[in-house]
Design brief:
By secondary structure, the chain is α+β, with helices and mostly antiparallel strands. It has a four-stranded mixed beta sheet. The longest helix is centred in the first third of the chain and has 82 residues. The N terminus is likely disordered.
Length: about 220
Amino acid sequence: MAEVRKRVAVKHEPTATASCSQTGESEATEVVNHQQKSDVQTSHGSQSQRHLIVSWLVITIASAAALGTAAYYVGRSKGLERAGPSPVPRHMSSSQLAKYNGFDDPRMLLSILGQVFDVTSGKSYYEPGTPYYFFIARDASSVFVADNFDNAAASPQPHRVDHLSSTELAHLAAWRQFYHDHPQYTFVATVYHEDGTGFYTEGGAPSQYLRDLELKMAEASKSK
């Protein structure tokens, strides 16, 4: 009887061993699956972190670029403000002079006998609506000494002074000296007329017309 039990016990041992083996394999499989899931989750987490980092870098770079661009234009604008208007050309045409009317250019220039003065500091005397605004941005030499302002202003060539008397020429020379001596007005340029009827040439040299006129004004001033 004891031998039979022993044989039965021995006969059932492989079954128990196989069962244990299957259990071990199942646990091992679960461990592997768990590890794989963990690896996948870790991988997804790493990818999410990388996406966040990349997005942050893109936003940071874009913001820096935008700020840099804004700073450039602000700085450029301030630089232009500090630089002020462009210099007045030393020798300008009558067309160029016409731009210095306080609107196209903030400066106000006038010309007498071909010499250009900046009278912006006396804007209250020369702004639109005042009688002297007519002189701004042009050479209207003859009008300075005209008895009839309206008639002289209507002349197609108000800079020409051929018709003036000796007394009027002396007064005109005095007006030119007034602008030279004025503490707030500045001589800035000479002006030439494209049709060749002016007091200066394109290169800034006195025209023959002006040289002859200077002799007449000198004589008129002596006899005044």
